[in-house]
Amino acid sequence: MSDLASVPQILPLLTRIAEALERLAPPPDGPLPLGSADAFVWHADPDRLDPVASVNRVEIGLLQGVEHQREQLLENTRRFAAGLPANNALLWGSRGMGKSSLVKSVHAAVSEAMPGTLALVEIHREDIPTLPRLLARLKGEPRRFILFCDDLSFDHDDAHYKSLKAVLEGGVEGRPENVVFYATSNRRHLMPRDMIENERSTAINPAEAVEEKVSLSDRFGLWLGFHNCDQPTYFAMVEGYARRFGLDVPVEELHAGAVEWQMTRGSRSGRVAWQFIQDLAGRLGKPLR
């Protein structure tokens, strides 16, 4: 009888415990907002895709000195958006030469020509191990997705590259046909030379150890190299920006200012040209719209 009498007192306690456990448990996966925008950022823990209302990008016609790379990536992306086979792409090389700008501008150009078919999903390097979870949620969706990782590279004792290798081509299921992976890097093989050399010198089988490291870049069927620009290309970048934004400056004065700016930066690149244009527009009191 005493046990039965205690049941009403225990029930409220059990109810509170159950409610507390429900609050601690992660919410069930809900539908992804894949129709709300053309670009998203993937965040892990908890997994979610945040829509990007306005992508920070440069118009594709303003990218000078990378015409060959532009046409190759544009054609690959057009095929992918049309439902045809396409390659993963690695854009590697010099800093500031428009690698990430090209990915975003190509996505915008193809999306404008084929509205609603293609979405850009940015994933941060530290979230690479969560790629399988993202792919599982994108698989079977009617839209096609470019997964984009900017400034991808791996350092010593970083095993994330193994997760990426498995996603790009490995595994039983392989990469979903509605997903392609674009990455930018300053390194052609995504790893520093001393890391590869260290593997060669300390491994039991040096050739196999190096192959393990280098083979990651082989998963990208399309390699696009970006190199330092020469002076005429740098001037073409500056002139193109000046025309686009209505900066009425004589060509000789524009070139002289661009050279002075380049000397303070110690390099020539698309990024340096854009920084000069921002400074020039500020001095002229003109917004860049």
Give a short overview.
The chain is of the alpha/beta class and 289 residues long. The chain is built from 10 helices and 7 strands.
Structural key phrases:
Rossmann fold, seven-stranded mixed β-sheet, 7 strands, 289 residues, alpha/beta, single chain, 10 helices
Chain-wise SSE layout:
Blueprint: H1 2-24, E1 39-43, E2 48-51, H2 67-81, E3 89-93, H3 99-113, E4 118-123, H4 131-138, E5 144-149, H5 160-168, E6 179-185, H6 193-202, H7 206-218, E7 222-226, H8 231-244, H9 251-265, H10 270-284
Helix pairs in contact: 2-3, 6-7, 8-9, 8-10
Structural summary, described in words:
The structure is a single chain. With 289 residues, this protein is of the alpha/beta class. Helix content is 47%, strand content 13%. Mean pLDDT is 83; it is low at 199-206. It folds into two domains: 39-226, P-loop containing nucleotide triphosphate hydrolases (Rossmann fold), CATH 3.40.50; 231-284. Strands 2-1-4-5-6-3-7 form a seven-stranded mixed sheet, with helices on both faces. β1 (39-43) and β2 (48-51) form a beta hairpin. The chain has ten helices and seven strands. The relative contact order is 0.13.
Instruction: Give the mean pLDDT.
Output: 83
Number of strands: 7
Q: Which bin fits the share of residues in helices?
A: 40-55%
What fraction of the residues are assigned to beta strands by DSSP?
Answer: 5-15%
Instruction: Give the second-level CATH assignment, the architecture of the largest domain.
Output: 3-Layer(aba) Sandwich
Low-confidence segments, given as residue ranges, are: 199-206
Give me the CATH superfamily of the largest domain.
P-loop containing nucleotide triphosphate hydrolases
How widely separated are the two ends? 81 Å
Number of domains: 2
The structural class is alpha/beta
CATH fold naming of the largest domain:
Rossmann fold
Question: Numbering strands along the chain, what is their spatial order in the largest sheet?
Answer: 2-1-4-5-6-3-7
How many H/I helices?
A: 10
Query: What is the CATH C level class of the largest domain, in words?
Result: Alpha Beta
Q: N-to-C SSE series?
A: HEEHEHEHEHEHHEHHH
Largest sheet: 7 strands, mixed
Oligomer: single chain
Shape: elongated
From the alpha carbons, calculate the radius of gyration and give it in angstroms. Answer: 25 Å
